[in-house]
Amino acid sequence: MQALATDAFGGWTGGETHRALVRPYRATAPVTRTIETPDKANAVLTAGALFDVGDENTDYPALLLANYMLGGHSKSRLYERIRAQEGLSYAVQSQLAAVSDEPLVTWTFIALTNPVNMAKAEAAFRDEIQKAVASGFPAAEVEASKQGFLSTRQVQRSDDVTLTQRLAVLAYNGRTMQFDRSLEEKVAALTPSLVNEAVRRHLDPTRLVVIRAGDFSKAQ
Fold first, then answer.
1. Does position 219 have pLDDT exceeding 80, yes or no?
2. pTM of the model
3. Using CA atoms, how far apart are residues 81 and 149, in angstroms rounded to an integer?
4. Residue 86, SS3?
């Protein structure tokens, strides 16, 4: 590989110095859009929101745990509601992603479903989000989820490839594993009130971007 790279790029010099791409937070308008994808057997429901926080913000650990409870594992609320209870999808998950050193966190949700079940899947999704914001997460759920979240991260570090990738990301951002240790200590110390207050501050069910894609004309 080194020989190939040298042969291809050995004489090349770039005219620009490296600069990190800055992606500041920008408020987005709520959108609900339908995209026709003819002749596709499955449809996809995806939703997202941007939060004006960074991965060192005091609300970040709470938002991480909230995402885990909403759609971050196979017993999460969205997974249980959309797949286990209503049988509308085999693939249901949500994810929270932060941009290091910038006040920007992206929350995304995705579910695959039959086009004829899209309305039901979307209704279930919106209902669960509304419940999470309005009623919050009870103490028992928070405590059990903290253990599950922390155990999952520990297991992930037992994989050499995953650990190497994480070390590379931390090094790129001038950090060490102490950053992850500190983050997990903050998650372990979370109370239900801290989690629920953070969710209400940042997750607004009326401001989600929701996209449906599928062959809905044929389904009708």
1. no
2. 0.90
3. 20
4. coil
| Angle ∠(124,48,68) on CA atoms, nearest 5 | 70
Q: Per residue in 119-140, is it b (16+ CB within 10 Å) or e — as a string? A: ebbbebbeebbeebbeebbeee
Domain ranges for the chain:
29-219
Q: Which CATH architecture has domain 29-219?
A: 2-Layer Sandwich (3.30)
Give me the phi and psi of 56, to 5 degrees please. Answer: -110, 5
Note whether 136 and 66 are within 8 A (CB).
Answer: no
Which tokens is 128 given?
Answer: 């669960």
User: Which amino acid, one-letter code, is at 187?
Assistant: V
- The number of beta carbons lying within 10 Å of the beta carbon of residue 186 is 16
Contact indicator for 70, 76 with CB cutoff of 8 Å: yes
Give the C-alpha separation, 196 to 135, whole Å: 8
pLDDT in tens, 3-54: 999 999 998 888 888 887 888 899 999 999 999 999 999 999 999 999 999 9
Most distant pair of Cα atoms in the chain: their distance? 62
